[in-house]
C-alpha cells in the first residue's frame, strides 16, 4: 500500500529517478551560471569605474596644463601659449559634450562617444563608461559623482571665459595692466575649487567601488553557500529515497526467501523502485492465490503441486538474485555519497553527480529487468538473445564506479577474440557483476586491485576469464565447497556466500560450467565456459 503523501518531499519521491538526477544537475548548473554572471558583472562594473578614474585623471591633467599655459601667456604674450591653452582646455570641453547628452532622457550614444573621444578617453573604455552611468544613474554614489562633474564643468566654462577675456585684453590696442591683473587673480580660486572637486569625484567613485565590492562578495558567499546546501540536500534526499526503497525490497525478499508470505513491501514512491515493490507485492499475492487454489483443488493435485514447487523455487532464486544484485549498486551509492561529502570543489561534485546519474540509471535498468524476470515462467527462464559482452562489462564497471574510485581498482577488458554470444541477458549481467564485485570485495590490503576480464574461443565455445590479484582462495581446503550456498572463505563482514552460488546456478542452468584457479596471496582466475552458440 502506497504511503500517504504528507509534504513536498513525498511528492518529489514519486518522480522518476532519472528526472530527480536531472533536477539536481539542473539546479547546480543554474547556481553555477548565476555565480559566473555575478563575477562577470562585478569585473565589468569595477573596470568601468577604473575607466572613469583614468578619464578623470586625463580631465584634471588637461585642466592643470591649460591653467599653466594661460598664466604663461599672460607673462609671455606669445600666441603659441594661448593656442596651447585652447588645446588643453578642449579635452574638458569634449567631456562637456558627453555630460550634456547623458543628462537627456534618451541620450544618443553616438554623441556621447564622440565627446569622450574628444576628451582623450580610450575607445575601448567608452562603452563601459556609458553603461556604468546609465545603469547606476539613480544610485546615490553615481548621482553624487555626476553632480560633482556638472559643477566642475560650470567652473571650466568660467575658466574658458576668463581665458578669452585675457586674450582679448592682451590683444587690445591699449591693454590695461590693472584689468589683466584682476583677470589673472580669478584663475587660482577656480583652479583650487576644481582641485577639490577632482578629489571629491575620485573619492565618490572609490566609495561606490568599495560598496559594490562588499555587496558582490556577500552575494558570492550566499551563492556558494546556497550551492553547497542545495546540492548536498538534493543528493541526500535522492540517495536516501533510493536506499530506503532498496532496503525495503531487500527486507521483503529475505522474508519471502524464508517462506513468510504475510509480509508486504512498503511502497514509499511511484518511481522505478516503487514499481518494483508493487510488482513484488503482486507476485506474493499471486503466489498466495496459487497456494489457496492448490489447497482447494483435489484434481490434478500432482500437477498443481509441481507448479507451486516451481514457483517457490523461482521466487527463492529471485529473492537471492534481488538481494545480492542490488547490494552492489546500493553500496556504490553510499560510496559516491561519501566521496561527495568529502569533495572540495564544484568540479569534483559535478563529476560525482554524473556518476550518481549513471549508477542510478543502471540501477533503474536492473530493477526493470528484475521486474520482467518475476513474470517469466519456467519455460521462458532461458530466453536467449545476442548479447554484446563488452557493453555488459562497461555497464557493470559504471555500476561499480563508486567502489572502483574508493579502492583505486583498475579493470581492464579485452573481447577481441569474441564479443557477442547467444545467451540469457539477465544471467549474463548477473554473472559479470558477481565476478567483478567479488574481485573488488576480496582485494588484498597490500596492493590496489587489478582485474582483467577477457574472452577466448575454446572448441568453438565462448569462454570468459576473470583474473584478479586479490586475497586468493585455498582450494585444497575449500575447493569442494567453493560454489556452495552461504560458504565464505575470508573474514569479510560483507561476505554472504551467495554470489558464487548464484553464478554457478545460472551458468549451469544454461548448460555451461564454471571453474576456478587460485593461489593464496596472489589472486584468482575464474573461468566460465558458457557452452553457447557464438
Summarize the structure.
The chain is of the alpha+beta class and about 525 residues long.
Describe this protein's structure.
- The radius of gyration is 41 Å and the shape is elongated.
- The strands form two sheets. It has a five-stranded mixed beta sheet with strand order 2-4-5-7-6, with helices on one face. Strands 1-3 form a two-stranded antiparallel sheet.
- The longest helix is centred in the middle third of the chain and has 71 residues.
- With 534 residues, it is α+β, with helices and mostly antiparallel strands.
Number of helices: 16
* Termini Cα gap: 46 Å
- Determine the oligomeric state from the structure: single chain
Helix content: 55-70%
Low-confidence runs of at least 5 consecutive residues: 1-5, 375-380
Mean pLDDT: 78
Question: How does the major sheet shape up?
Answer: 5 strands, mixed
Radius of gyration, in angstroms, nearest whole number: 41 Å
Order of helices and strands: HHHHHHHHHHHEHHEEHEEHHEE
Q: What is the molecular shape?
A: elongated
Percentage of residues in DSSP E strands: 5-15%
- SS elements, strand count: 7
Question: Strand order, biggest sheet?
Answer: 2-4-5-7-6
Give the helix/strand class: alpha+beta
Amino acid at each position: 500500500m502506497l504511503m500517504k503523501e504528507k509534504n513536498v518531499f513525498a511528492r518529489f519521491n514519486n518522480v522518476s529517478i532519472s528526472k530527480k538526477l536531472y533536477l539536481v544537475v539542473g539546479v547546480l548548473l543554474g547556481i553555477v551560471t548565476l555565480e559566473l554572471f555575478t563575477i562577470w558583472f562585478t569585473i565589468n562594473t569595477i573596470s568601468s569605474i577604473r575607466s572613469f578614474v583614468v578619464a578623470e585623471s586625463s580631465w584634471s591633467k588637461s585642466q592643470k596644463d591649460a591653467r599653466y599655459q594661460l598664466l604663461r601667456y599672460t607673462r609671455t604674450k606669445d600666441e603659441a601659449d594661448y593656442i596651447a591653452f585652447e588645446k588643453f582646455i578642449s579635452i574638458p570641453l569634449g567631456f562637456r559634450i558627453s555630460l550634456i547628452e547623458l543628462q537627456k532622457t534618451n541620450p544618443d550614444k553616438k554623441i556621447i562617444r564622440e565627446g569622450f573621444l574628444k576628451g582623450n578617453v580610450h575607445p575601448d573604455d567608452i562603452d563601459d563608461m556609458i553603461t556604468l552611468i546609465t545603469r547606476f544613474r539613480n544610485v546615490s554614489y553615481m548621482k553624487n559623482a555626476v553632480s560633482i562633474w556638472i559643477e566642475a564643468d560650470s567652473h571650466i566654462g568660467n575658466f574658458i571665459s576668463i581665458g578669452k577675456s585675457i586674450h582679448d585684453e592682451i590683444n587690445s590696442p591699449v591693454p590695461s595692466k590693472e584689468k589683466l591683473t584682476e583677470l589673472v587673480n580669478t584663475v587660482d580660486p577656480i583652479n583650487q575649487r576644481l582641485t577639490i572637486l577632482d578629489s571629491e569625484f575620485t573619492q565618490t567613485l572609490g566609495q561606490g567601488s568599495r560598496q559594490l565590492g562588499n555587496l558582490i562578495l556577500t552575494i558570492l558567499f550566499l551563492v556558494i553557500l546556497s550551492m553547497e546546501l542545495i546540492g548536498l540536500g538534493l543528493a541526500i534526499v535522492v540517495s536516501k529515497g533510493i536506499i530506503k526503497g532498496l532496503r525495503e525490497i531487500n527486507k521483503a525478499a529475505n522474508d519471502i526467501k524464508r517462506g513468510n508470505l504475510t509480509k508486504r513491501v512498503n511502497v514509499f514512491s511511484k518511481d522505478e523502485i516503487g514499481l518494483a515493490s508493487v510488482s513484488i507485492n503482486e507476485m506474493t499475492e499471486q503466489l498466495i492465490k496459487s497456494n489457496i487454489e492448490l489447497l482447494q483443488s483435489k484434481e490434478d493435485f500432482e500437477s498443481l503441486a509441481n507448479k507451486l514447487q516451481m514457483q517457490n523455487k523461482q521466487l527463492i532464486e529471485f529473492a537471492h538474485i534481488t538481494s545480492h544484485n542490488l547490494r552492489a549498486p546500493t553500496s556504490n551509492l553510499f560510496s559516491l555519497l561519501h566521496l561527495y561529502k568529502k569533495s572540495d570543489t564544484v568540479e569534483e561534485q559535478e563529476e560525482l553527480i554524473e556518476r550518481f546519474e549513471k549508477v542510478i540509471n543502471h540501477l533503474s535498468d536492473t530493477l526493470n529487468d528484475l521486474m520482467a524476470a518475476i513474470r517469466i515462467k519456467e519455460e521462458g527462464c532461458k530466453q536467449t538473445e545476442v548479447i554484446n559482452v563488452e557493453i555488459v562489462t562497461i555497464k557493470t564497471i559504471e555500476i561499480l564506479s563508486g567502489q572502483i574510485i574508493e579502492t583505486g581498482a583498475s579493470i581492464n577488458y579485452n573481447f577481441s577474440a569474441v564479443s557477442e554470444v547467444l545467451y540469457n541477458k539477465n544471467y549474463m549481467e548477473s554473472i559479470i557483476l558477481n565476478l567483478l564485485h567479488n574481485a573488488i570485495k576480496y582485494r588484498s590490503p597490500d596492493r590496489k586491485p587489478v582485474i582483467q576480464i577477457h574472452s577466448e574461443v575454446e572448441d568453438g565455445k565462448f569462454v570468459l576469464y576473470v583474473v584478479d590479484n586479490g586475497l586468493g582462495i585455498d582450494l585444497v581446503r575449500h575447493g569442494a565447497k567453493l560454489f556452495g550456498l552461504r560458504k565464505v572463505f575470508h573474514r569479510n563482514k560483507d561476505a554472504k556466500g551467495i554470489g558464487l552460488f548464484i553464478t554457478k546456478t545460472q551458468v549451469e542452468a544454461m548448460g555451461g560450467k564454471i571453474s576456478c584457479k587460485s593461489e593464496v596471496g596472489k589472486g584468482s582466475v575464474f573461468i566460465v565456459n558458457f557452452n553457447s552458440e557464438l
